[in-house]
Design goal:
With about 300 residues, the chain is an alpha+beta fold. Helix content is about 30%, strand content about 30%. The chain has helices spanning about 45-55, 100-120, 135-145, 165, 170-180, 180-195, 240-250, 270-275, 275-290, and strands spanning about 1-5, 15-20, 25-30, 30-35, 65-70, 75-85, 90-100, 125-130, 150-155, 160, 200-205, 210-215, 215-220, 220-225, 230-235, 255, 265-270.
Length: about 300
Amino acid sequence: MTKIPKSHNNSKENSTLSLSAGETTYQYVKHQKLLLKTHPDFNEKWVQEKIAEDPSILEIGELILKDQERNQPGAGRLDLLFQDPDSNLRYEVEIQLGKTDESHIFRTIEYWDLERRRYPQYDHVAVLIAEDITSRFLNVIGLLNGIIPLVAIHQRLGLAPEEEEEREVADRTYWEKRSSKTTVFTADEVLRLMKTLDQALELKYNKFYISVSKDNRPFNFVIFRPKKTSLRLEPKLKKSEEVEIMLDSAGLDVLEYDTRNQRYRIRFSKDEIQKHERLLKEILGRAYREFNGDSSIG
């Protein structure tokens, strides 16, 4: 894992080189190796949350989060459960800081086995993420090859302050390449509906998601996460039975509610925007008014 230092001295080790490309300035810094197992601020829960927010960092496909801290009767909790939206493949993911050890290997396989027995209609893959994958563990994978589908991922995450996410500016082309032109255009269709609420609203392209701005300031009552075949819409709304009934009745693909950020997470295809336009305007209107401090709903 690498981390960009917050400050640099004039030593050769921390020397910097600034390059300009148009209006963008790039700065070279020598990386630092950082082990989270002994870090005072970052822990396993932090890593889990980051992977849950953006499964693409695992680089094993376009995945959706099905569950987090999933209870396994008599066997603890599975860190993360992902599913491939285009197949019946599920991934049981365990995270370990530091070196791989026997207990985490056993736990990963045990959770995989429990899930495949409970849900035999799916294909299952066991995934262990660790900072240091030992040669001994690689030998174990070789022995189990062909018996248990087991994937080991060497955890190498870059760290940056949370406020940097909004500053990591991208552009439309970046998102068209990362997702698709169709799903980015779908975000345009949602913006058209948003402008019926406020003509000043615009899309802002960041590295981690597409946000909303008003008068050149962040106004994220909803954010967008385009994927290859769908657009994930995340309106900021307090969880309520009324909203959940509305979404369920429409038959929309609703993912697990983001409790920490108080956001519903809904997957839309391009055709579904027009099909559910009336409902979508209602949800966006509620999120807009709640975000703007207007207590009146309806």
